[in-house]
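Consider this one:
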Amino acid sequence: MKKQKEKYAAFSLAEALITLLIISMITIATIPVITKKTRTKENHGKWICTRNAAGKHIQWTTGASGDAENSNSWTVTGDSCSFTPPSQARNFNITAVGGGGGGAGAESSIKTWDETFHVEYYGKYKFLAVGGGGGSGREGNQCSSKGSGGGGAGGVAYREYEITKDVVKVMMKTGDGGDGGSDKGLPSKNGGGHSGEDSTISIVKSNDDEDTILTAKGGGGGERSYGARCRKGCTGGKQGGTKDADITYKSDTGDGICKVSYANGCVSQEDAIKINDKLGTTSPFGTKSMTVMWRNGKDCTYSEVGAGGGRLGENQPGKKGATFAVTEIYRSGGGGTAGEYQTVFVPSFKERKIKVTVGQGGAGGGKAQNGTDGEYTIVEGYLEAPYGRGGRTVAIEKAYTETPGGDGEKTPLYYKSEPLLGKGGLSNGNTSVNGLTSEGYGAGGGGGGVKPGEEAGVGGDGAPGYVLIEW
């Protein structure tokens, strides 16, 4: 019995382990060798679509002959692009940007005031004041011609002045003309005319301080009778004073025949032209509608502003003076906004081809015109990236002072190099009044600027959008 049990005794532990090792080695040897797949270039790459300077679609993809750094070497595809997904590629990331808005054009316009006004525009102004004319003396009884002394014309004062941000209001006080002499002997015992009032222009600051910046003296009143000759139409009143040496009213009565005198408020054509040149041809003293008139041959063409009374030798009141402010308002153009971007993840495409339409950048506005909006960028069936808005005309307003245009806006996403923004006219190193067209993808165009002595600038175009697909 003992021998029988030994015959069927179990394996030892060492023997069992050796047996398992042998079986494992045999099993491994019978399994086929499986090689690990390697990713090809086709399974990892980029595809880009945008537009060229002519507005045509162009595209580039990994492995193409064109240089990714030089979009001029990309393939021109016409009115759209077509993306063909690689057969074994998966996990696509699509980024799209809409077209940028165009910059707005700038504008300028003449603005005038003839009474007190609150300041809206800061910058350089031209101010002119005319004093009230003096009244003539009452009729004399010394001559059969009933001659009397005419009132002196109001003085003229001119000044260029820059209004700063601490000025809130411009006060204009226009002097009245003086009354003619009366039988009661006023204002003088011999019946002389009253003097005209001064015309003044003052500025009022935010702290309520008021400073007079210009004064035009009123003309003197005429005497009751003018000299022994009793000539009609000659002035007996003194000419009002002036602060500007370039605009003077000489008071030379000569022999009383008014050859060179400014009798009763007449001024020379030469002086009238000087006033026009000071204020500009579209001002209240413009040459086409002259308010201050001039001597014409032997007769005087009488001014309705600041003239002395008594052109017929009668006791007449002087004409009221005037106050004027003139400036050129500059409104610069705003830059266009950038196209918006969208991103979407696509595990795999069902379509064999996907149509892509890239939004064109908006056109820059002409003078006094807003920029146009850009266009949507569309990846059909997957996303639409909104466009950038065109700039608006009134970005900055100044009075006759260099006014830069607004810069375009850039998109936060770009491929390879950062896009060049559309700089505004006269801003950030751009010495031209015209806004610059942006370069790159989806950036806005620059707005136009304005500079004294030059035409208002136009806006720059926005940059086209783009589509980038990576896998």
User: Anything to note?
Assistant: The mean pLDDT is 77.
